[in-house]
Design brief:
Rossmann fold; about 280 residues
Length: about 280
């Protein structure tokens, strides 16, 4: 049994999976979200709206060893992203200061949208971050806020998260989704359980005294061309019809590397889309 504690701010899909993984390790886990009735069993509920600057009534009084900021924007525009990732984080940092809490480390869950490369090149953590869209720009602003917080911090840039309840691609393939083969549109993905396991691994590594970098990319081992993924899913699901209506609109293409996380000792349970989607379709993930 561990006496370590972690607060998961944004305890939804990935955050909830993380909470369950840390509970299994014997950690004390607090989970902050608006609707605390959906928190996993065993998680100390902290009901809060990150848009409100006043400290939540249920915010823990005692020491807080770790904090994971793992929110999802409820409003998908620049104002919504600013509120969720920058303003919300600023409020949480203020609440920590108000309680006199200084976690050993802050993990800020970011996105690979900070990378704008689109020529199919391999991307590692130190690659240029010159995002063209508001989502990447706001994420970079929030990352800088976390790294300048005075708390030891690491940002984790997750790629396309998929899993139960995140099955847009499966529905598109069933409808005859069509995607260009040339030039290849490389996509990057990580199963929701592996996204959580990477965060859990980093928390435990830090607790065990391992030195962490300030940035990690969360991605599986196989950033494959989208056409290959669609072809495999069509064969696996037995889809034979094509639709003239469903066509991909994506333009980005890059291959993100998980070499840094793997060098620390992490490995995904679902190393490629094949294992991940097969588990989802079998109802096992």
């Amino acid at each position: 049994m561990s006496d370590l504690s972690v607060m998961v701010v944004g305890c939804g899909d990935v955050g909830g999976r993380l909470a369950k993984q840390m509970l299994a390790k014997g950690w004390q886990v607090s989970g902050l979200r608006r609707s605390v009735g959906q928190l996993p069993a065993g998680v100390q509920p902290v009901a809060a709206d990150l848009a409100e600057p006043s400290i939540p009534q249920a915010w823990p009084q005692g020491p807080l060893d770790y904090l994971v900021y793992c929110v999802a924007a409820s409003q998908h525009d620049e104002a919504g992203y600013q509120a969720a990732y920058v303003d919300g984080l600023r409020h949480v940092l203020a609440w920590l200061a108000e309680r006199g809490q200084r976690p050993r480390r802050l993990l800020f869950v970011s996105s690979s949208s900070v990378y704008a490369q689109k020529g199919g090149e391999w991307i590692e953590e130190g690659a240029a971050t010159e995002p063209e869209g508001y989502s990447g720009r706001v994420m970079l602003e929030a990352e800088r806020l976390a790294l300048a917080s005075g708390i030891p911090a690491s940002v984790v840039r997750l790629t396309g998260i998929y899993g139960p309840g995140r099955e847009w691609l499966l529905s598109q393939v069933r409808q005859g989704y069509r995607v260009a083969e040339e030039p290849p549109l490389y996509g990057n993905r990580i199963h929701a359980e592996d996204a959580a396991s990477l965060l859990a691994f980093l928390l435990q590594a830090d607790a065990d005294g391992k030195a962490l970098d300030d940035c990690y990319i969360g991605v599986d081992d196989d950033p494959a061309p989208l056409a290959d993924v669609v072809a495999w899913l069509r064969a696996y699901m037995g889809v034979t019809e094509w639709s003239d209506e469903q066509r991909v609109r994506r333009t980005g293409s890059k291959r993100c590397s998980n070499a840094r996380a793997r060098a620390l000792g992490w490995a995904p349970e679902y190393p490629s889309y094949k294992e991940g989607y097969a588990a989802i379709l079998a109802g096992k993930a």
